[in-house]
Specification:
2 domains; 7-stranded antiparallel beta sheet; 10 helices; globular
Length: 304
């Protein structure tokens, strides 16, 4: 999460791919590295619009936020690691640009910009927009643990009285809302009205839809499966212990008076490979794990 935003000169995708090009609908986009900086150029064959790239969002897919005439824009094209190249930014495929400005990117308002920068980094807001001059790139300790910055400043002076907020007291419901502030909670997903496989990226929303989700049972907390301080674990078997905490009698004491759920009659390992299916999100060139825990049958439609 430290790389949720990257600033010049260290922008991984642009460093590794100093020249990227993409053509569609009569426009050509060129991303080019120049020393420690990169530029984003869109051309219609006659004229071009060239801007410096300051903000790179994301790791596996990288979208750029551009500044043009005092306004912020989401880049029309993004870098996708699985294809090692550019394609239209997810969600912008419905846009038909009529001029260079529209082909350059989608204008984002102050509210959206503030939300984007505060989830991918830390930018104080003033007058309803992020103060980018004070931006801290990436997700820092203080993003989740209130008081962490004060603690870090004081600890070097030998002061140990300021302890950052701990999150271990949060219930599954509270943790879902807390993580969902960026990863999209049930309430946020409903408000946005993002239906179909596009919401597979909204893990707290998907998890909350699961029949087994119980907001008072800490076995269903986000942190029961994921350690936010470590890289994402991709080995499916490593999650078995979390599944068996609820679905194997005698393996876990009941929490808050809740009994263990019935065991799976098919298998006792690699649970997520069946009950949390992989979903290929069209336009993203990526496969996501659906956190809607369920019995998945062949031919089932994607459940919202």
């Amino acid at each position: 999460m430290a790389h949720a935003i990257e600033l010049p000169p260290h922008q991984t995708a642009l460093e590794n791919h100093p020249l990227l090009r993409f053509r569609k609908g009569g426009y050509e986009w060129t991303l080019e590295r120049h020393g420690d900086a990169s530029t984003y150029t869109v051309s219609d064959g006659t004229n071009e619009l060239k801007l410096p790239i300051r903000y790179s969002f994301g790791m596996h897919s990288t979208t750029f936020v551009l500044e043009y005439q005092g306004r912020l824009y989401e880049s029309m094209v993004s870098y996708f690691a699985p294809i090692a190249g550019l394609d239209i930014t997810l969600g912008d495929e419905v846009i038909t640009p009529h001029n260079l400005e529209e082909a350059m990117g989608r204008r984002i308002d102050n509210a959206e910009a503030t939300a984007c920068f505060n989830c991918h980094g830390s930018a104080p807001a003033a007058e309803g927009r992020p103060v980018l001059e004070s931006l801290t790139a990436g997700v820092t300790c203080g993003h989740c643990h209130q008081g962490a910055e004060t603690h870090l400043r004081e600890i070097v002076r030998g002061i140990t009285t300021s302890i950052p907020e701990r999150l271990g007291h949060k219930s599954a419901e509270d943790m879902s809302d807390f993580c969902g502030a960026c990863h999209r909670s049930w309430q946020t997903a409903i408000a946005l009205g993002v239906w179909g496989s596009r919401n597979v990226r909204f893990q707290p929303y998907r998890l909350a839809n699961s029949k087994c989700f119980d907001g008072a049972d800490n076995r269903m907390r986000c942190t029961a499966c994921h350690d936010p301080h470590q890289q994402l674990v991709k080995d499916s078997a490593s999650y078995d212990k979390s599944c068996l905490a609820c679905h194997a009698a005698g393996r876990y004491e009941a929490t808050a008076g809740r009994d263990t759920a019935k065991s799976c009659p098919v298998a006792a390992k690699d649970c997520v490979t069946c009950h949390m299916p992989k979903v290929t999100l069209q336009g993203s060139h990526q496969v996501f794990t659906d956190h809607y825990i369920r019995i998945v049958r062949p031919g089932d439609a994607y459940p919202d």
